[in-house]
Write a structure and sequence with these properties.
It comes from Hyaloscypha hepaticicola. Among the domains are: 159 residues, no CATH class; 233 residues, no CATH class; 92 residues, no CATH class. A hairpin with a 2-residue loop joins strand 10 and strand 11. The two termini are 70 Å apart. Helices cover 24% and strands 17% of the residues. It has 756 residues and is an alpha+beta fold. It has 19 helices and 32 strands.
């Protein structure tokens, strides 16, 4: 059975009014008053007409209320459940629309008339509504009247199931006869947009969720489903579906579910989803990971996966022309947008068992994971195979494929689950947010909230022995509240990371997309010009970020000092600002242009003292080429000693205008020298989107963010592993500093403060 949370049809509660264009008369209880007089005339006396009572057969026969009001079949009523000595056989509630008879004079009575009692089901009402193409309300005397507004509290009135003959009734010593009631007024149509039917989206009890049960049938049979309410204390066997919400080419209208009181359920659904998702997907017998049924490449990819898993024959797949189609199809599978969804990481990470589905095709998720691991190990050989047969291999290395790699890694490594069911979380919230910075989320704060159950530093708030209703979310460092301002949520996240890591590096990491323009500068946003998922920077937010993974910094410019911060205590002024401690080291004096992808400009070489006509390697300034690689090798390793020779080779192959074309040199060196290619890849990852500068007082060489201007301040903040560029405010911002970004300053990156 499939897991889904959707609203379903509910029988309207008798006390809940139905909408109508004439609210003054709709929903009112009609009063028909008659009273006997000596002359035989009929006057009105207070007799209330009560109709439209939803009752099961047992309650109808006994004349009692059928509670709870608005229950959804097959839920039994309280009367049948509490019957002694055993429960009664409850039935589907039926709607009785009989009206109380009115006594008339004998001359007006029709002796052969009969009192009729009718019942309607909700399906009958729906059919009548569709046939008339407009919703309408039957009225007994020409005025609108809502059936659902009738009172059902009285139990002394009995409604008969079968017609019976009408006979004279004695009242006040005189004999009167009933007359035929007037015919109902014509149906009064009104606009469908004005009609808001009662919703059956009944609140669930703590620990409950709904399962959509699919009845068996043939391929051409009508689909029959029903809702089952399950609880964590009594779990049935079910499957959960993990899929891309809002996918496909549909252009449907978004519908907000409203209850009878016109209140939206979106807040309830979102909060309940956060609390229950972990239990639902963890206890599912299987999680069906739905890809699509539209892409024709999926069939070839699913059929090719068993060949990839045949390790003994992998070399043939890397050489044969026949396997090119399979590799192309598999890469197309990796680029599916479903692997770019943030919420799905939690769903698959918690799953006990998972399968991938594309139409009628399926494969086990772990088989897909192994196939991708083999693909990554052989990616260079696959690239050569594709080039050999005139197929562009660019998709093997683009950001979509890299995003899938990150997605698969987190779904398989974020949690370690023991045989006893104990969950060990492997990453902190900071690490998870940085590793998923490029994935999509429907709400900006979901970039944080969706990862909380997977974070090691929030494990105590998601105890495996506690139900969601027992979570003490109020004591969490990050309070889950979708009504809060995005800037406040991000500030609290930054504060939590500083508290837990005792480092300020988070203010230099690019980790969130710019949704609003007024985010504080210490919340670093992703730039569209930054390359995605660079091999050296998968744990931070931007091409060539100078920080390593959390807890593994490449530098120690602050000499191991502990971070100190203070949130602005004045709530009315600069409420998003944070106070840090540090000192000013120097200012920017000279500044080169921004480096673009694949190019080192002539202006940089001139500022660095390099001459493209230099024949001697010894004449190349060491401080300049070390600045180009930030004095580190890949992943923060020690700078290889041969880097200066590789730079000399590149300098001798500069363009006639004096620029070094990195992209051209990489293409030329792929077949000849992998060392030059490695050096150029490192240079490109460091200098891209940065400016080369020389400081004012100490003549330091360095690299600064694109937004840097001459006169900006080079500062060292306590607890930050790299120097930062700050810009002092003016006017109303006087006394406040704006963070431009992190920077590399050659000579002061490793605990050297001799300049003070």
């Amino acid at each position: 059975m499939d897991l889904i949370a959707e609203p379903h049809t509910e029988y309207p509660a008798p006390h809940e009014p139905q909408p109508h264009p004439e609210p003054a008369t709709s929903h009112a209880h009609k009063q028909l008053d008659f009273e006997d007089t000596p002359g035989g005339e009929v006057k009105e006396s207070t007799i209330q007409s009560k109709i439209c009572v939803w009752k099961c057969e047992q309650c109808r026969d006994s004349g009692t209320e059928c509670l709870p009001i608005g229950r959804t079949w097959p839920q039994k009523c309280d009367q049948c459940l509490k019957a002694s000595p055993q429960e009664l056989q409850c039935s589907k509630p039926l709607l009785n629309i009989r009206q109380r008879r009115v006594k008339l004079s004998k001359s007006e009575a029709a002796p052969d008339s009969k009192t009729q009692t009718t019942t309607e089901t909700p399906e009958d009402q729906d059919t009548e509504s569709e046939n008339n193409d407009k919703m309408s309300i039957i009225e007994s005397d020409g005025s609108p009247e809502s059936y659902a507004s009738r009172d059902t509290s009285s139990s002394d009135e009995e409604f008969e199931q079968t017609p019976r003959s009408r006979a004279p009734i004695k009242m006040g010593g005189s004999q009167k006869e009933l007359r035929r009631l007037p015919m109902p007024a014509p149906l009064q149509p009104f606009d469908r947009e004005d009609h808001h039917p009662a919703s059956a989206y009944l609140p669930l009890a703590q620990g409950e969720f709904r399962i959509l049960s699919l009845a068996p049938g043939g391929q051409k049979d009508e689909v029959v489903v029903s809702f089952i309410t399950a609880s964590l204390g009594n779990l049935p066997s079910y499957e959960a579906i993990s899929y891309l919400w809002g996918g496909g080419q549909q252009s449907s209208v978004k519908i907000t579910v409203l209850d009878a009181h016109r209140r939206s359920h979106s807040v309830y659904v979102r909060g309940n989803l956060l609390a229950m998702k972990r239990f639902i997907f963890r206890n599912a017998q299987n999680v069906c990971f739905w890809l699509s049924d539209k892409d024709p490449n999926f069939k070839a990819a699913f059929n090719f996966i068993p060949h990839i898993l045949d390790i003994a024959g992998i070399d043939k797949l890397l050489q044969n022309k026949e396997s090119v189609t399979g590799w192309v199809a598999f890469v197309a599978l990796l680029r599916n947008p479903i692997f770019n969804r943030l919420w799905l990481i939690q769903e698959l990470a918690l799953a006990q068992n998972a399968t991938l589905h594309a139409g009628h095709l399926s494969t086990h998720y772990l088989d897909f994971v192994d196939a991708m691991s083999i693909f990554l190990s052989c990616r260079l050989e696959i690239s050569k195979l594709l080039r050999k047969h005139n197929v562009d291999p660019k998709d093997l290395f683009d950001h979509k494929t890299a995003a899938t790699e990150q997605f698969v890694m987190l779904t398989t490594k974020a949690l370690r689950i023991t045989a006893s069911g104990k969950i060990h979380r492997q990453f902190t919230l900071e690490s998870l947010v940085l590793q998923t910075k490029e994935l999509d989320a429907s709400h900006p704060v979901d970039r944080i909230y969706s990862l909380l159950p997977l974070a090691r530093d929030f494990g105590e708030f998601y105890d495996e022995q506690m139900l969601p209703c027992q979570y003490n979310f109020c004591n969490m460092p990050l309070r889950i509240d979708y009504d809060r301002n995005l800037s406040d949520v991000c500030r609290d996240f930054v504060a939590h990371v500083i508290d837990s890591s005792r480092s300020l590096d988070i203010i230099c990491r690019h980790w969130i997309r710019r949704i609003v323009a007024d985010l504080p500068t210490y919340i670093r946003t992703l730039s569209s010009s930054q390359l995605r998922f660079d091999a050296d920077t998968s744990h931070n937010g931007g091409i060539g970020c100078l920080l390593g993974a959390p807890g593994n910094s490449y530098y120690s410019a602050s000499k191991g000092t502990i971070a100190w911060y203070k949130i602005n205590p004045n709530p009315t002024q600069r409420q998003a600002s944070i106070i840090f401690r540090g000192f000013r080291a120097d200012k920017i004096l000279r500044l080169g242009p921004r480096a673009v992808v694949g190019l080192i400009q002539r202006e940089w070489l001139t500022l660095g003292g390099c001459n493209s006509e230099t024949d001697s390697i010894d004449e190349i300034p060491e401080v300049f080429w070390r600045t180009l690689v930030a004095d580190r090798g890949p992943n923060g390793s020690v700078t290889p000693s041969w880097y200066y020779r590789a730079f000399a080779h590149c300098l001798s192959h500069s363009n006639p205008n004096g620029d070094i074309n990195i992209a051209r040199l990489i293409a030329e060196s792929e077949a000849g020298s992998s060392l030059i290619t490695d050096f150029l890849n490192r240079v490109q990852s460091v200098v891209c989107d940065r400016k080369f500068f020389i400081s004012k007082d100490h003549q330091w060489f360095g690299l600064a963010p694109d937004g840097t201007e001459i006169g900006d301040t080079i500062s060292i903040l306590y607890g930050c592993s790299v120097p930062v560029i700050l810009r002092e405010g003016s006017g109303d911002d006087l006394g406040y500093w704006r963070l431009v970004g992190e920077c590399y300053v050659h000579g002061i990156m490793d605990e050297y403060w001799g300049f003070l």
